[in-house]
Amino acid sequence: QVQLVESGGGLVQAGGSLRLSCAASGIIFSINTMGWFRQAPGKQRELVATITGGGTTNYSDSVKGRFTISRDNAKNSVYLQMSSLKPDDTAVYYCRSWKPYYWGQGTQVTVSS
Fold first, then answer.
1. Are the beta carbons of 27 and 78 closer than 8 angstroms?
2. For residues 14 and 85, is the Cβ–Cβ distance under 8 A?
3. β-pair partners for 24
4. At residue 36, what are phi and psi to the nearest 5 degrees?
């Protein structure tokens, strides 16, 4: 059974930082591309960042230079370090695996101005 469990969301002031974690089980994590997506109220879910099994990363232009995606294959976990947060970053953040295609339940991030 596949499980992706996100944690680390919360309320933070603009300019602050948060670190999201996603613990995976039921997948072959070390070779799996993993990603973070987000969905703000009234908007479509959008890609934030991805990381391949080999560690190659990709970021959306809106977070490039502020967010860092990383992974720890020994812990079957992927992380999203978010810095210089803006109110526009407010959203539910979701972890996703590619093989199989699976979503976590999401964690709320709220950035106050």
1. no
2. yes
3. 4
4. -115, 135
| Per-residue pLDDT tens over the stretch 78-96 | 999 999 999 999 999 999 9
Secondary structure of residue 15 in the 3-state scheme: coil
Residue count of the chain: 113
Strand order of the β-sheet with 18-25 is 3-7, 18-25, 77-82, 67-72
Strands 107-112 and 10-13: parallel
b/e for 14-37, b at 16 or more Cβ within 10 A?
eeeebebbbbbeebebeebbbbbb
Q: Tokens for 103, please give them.
A: 């979503």
- Supply angle C-alpha 29, 3, 5, rounded to 5: 95
Per the DSSP assignment, residues forming a β-bridge with 103 are 96
Percent of the chain with pLDDT over 70: 100
* Residue in the structure block whose two tokens are 């979701």: 94
